[in-house]
Amino acid sequence: MKTRPKIIISTLDAERLDSLVESLPSNAFPGRDELETELMRAEVVDPQDVPPTVVTMNSTVKFKVESSSEEFELTLVYPKDIDASGSKISILAPVGSALLGLSQGDEIEWPKPGGGVLRVRIVEVTYQPERSGEYHR
User: Which domains occur in the chain, in start order?
Assistant: First the structure.
């Protein structure tokens, strides 16, 4: 697998995600180890210092998955915020975990449950709470 791109997350997201992962049984979701690894390697910054092109929690992001010619635009959310709209993706979903902390233009290979990898590329961060001055969401 290629070297993964640098990721940046806010202190608020880091605290909430650490708590979420710790609260779940070790076998609760297949990508737990990968998400924990990403959280450990992330550059953690204050919310107001997050660059405007970085995918944070509650960001809406356009991205492509290499195996599909389709472009997606979804909001990265905590599991409790998933609804039936189809416009959100959980941080616990493989693609959701892959998106966290990436910047526009970044590409990452992410393990799929059951084998193989997803290649995900960030096209655009269309909404980011920090960019809008929302630091305590």
Answer: 8-127 (3.10.50.30)
pLDDT in tens, 70-114: 899 999 999 999 999 999 999 998 889 889 999 999 998 877 777
Q: Which residues lie below 8 Å from residue 91, measured CB to CB, with a gap of 6+?
A: 17, 20, 35, 57, 76, 77, 78, 79, 97, 100
- CA 51 to chain centroid, in Å, comes to 15
Lay out the sheet containing 117-127: strands in order across: 88-90, 71-77, 60-65, 117-127, 107-111
Q: pTM value?
A: 0.89
User: 128 and 50 in contact (C-beta within 8 Å)?
Assistant: yes
Residue carrying the six token digits 């905590």? 78
